Amino acid sequence: MEMIRKIRCKRMACNEKGMSLIEIMIAVVILGILAAIALPSYTAYVVEGHRSQALADMAKIQLKLEENYNAGYSATGIISGGVCIICDSDTDRYAMNLTTTSTGYTITATPQSTKGQNSDKCDGTSYTSLTLTQTGEGTPSACWK
């Protein structure tokens, strides 16, 4: 008595159970085209997102400076050793700098090349740094829209 049941199939039906090499190659080519279109767009959104975070951090520094104004501006508790203490932006993307005087300040964010942030553009124009002054003027103006 046989315990294993053998299913006999037609020879033509048994040979058609896989994908051909051409079908697999077509699928790989379609995926490659989609990736080639999507990757540059995704990269641009990531760079723009980090710029937005740097702008928000600059505004946060400005608020902290104005909050602690006492006949002069002080960077105490904001930037220590060239590193922004209250910022959320990635230091590999932007280097923050704060210059204070008794009558004003300038906050500067310089894009870094370590992760390609220096290739960022605002309205198609490259920039070397983002600045914000005590008057609320941000440059380049295209980035502060």
Commentary on this structure:
It comes from Vibrio hepatarius. The chain crosses the membrane at residues 21-42. This is Fimbrial protein. The protein is α+β, with helices and mostly antiparallel strands. Helices cover 35% and strands 19% of the residues. The protein has two helices and eight strands, in the order ααββββββββ. The protein has helices at residues 11-14, 21-67; strands at 79-80, 83-84, 94-100, 105-111, 121-122, 125-126, 130-133, 138-139. The strands form three sheets. Strands 3-4-7-8 form a four-stranded antiparallel β-sheet, with helices on one face. It is elongated, with a radius of gyration of 28 Å. The relative contact order is 0.12.
| Termini Cα gap | 83 Å
CATH 2nd-level architecture: 2-Layer Sandwich
Q: Give the uncertain stretches in residue-range form.
A: none
Strand order of the largest sheet: 3-4-7-8
* CATH topology grouping: Glycoprotein, Type 4 Pilin
Per DSSP, the total helix count is 2
Q: How many domain modules?
A: 1
**CATH class designation:** Alpha Beta
From N to C, what is the helix and strand string?
Answer: HHEEEEEEEE
**Averaged pLDDT:** 87
Total beta strand runs: 8
Give a short account of the largest sheet.
4 strands, antiparallel
Radius of gyration: 28 Å
Query: What portion of residues belong to β-strands?
Result: 15-25%
Shape: elongated
Measured as a percent range, the helix fraction is 25-40%
| CATH homologous superfamily grouping | Glycoprotein, Type 4 Pilin
| Secondary structural class | alpha+beta
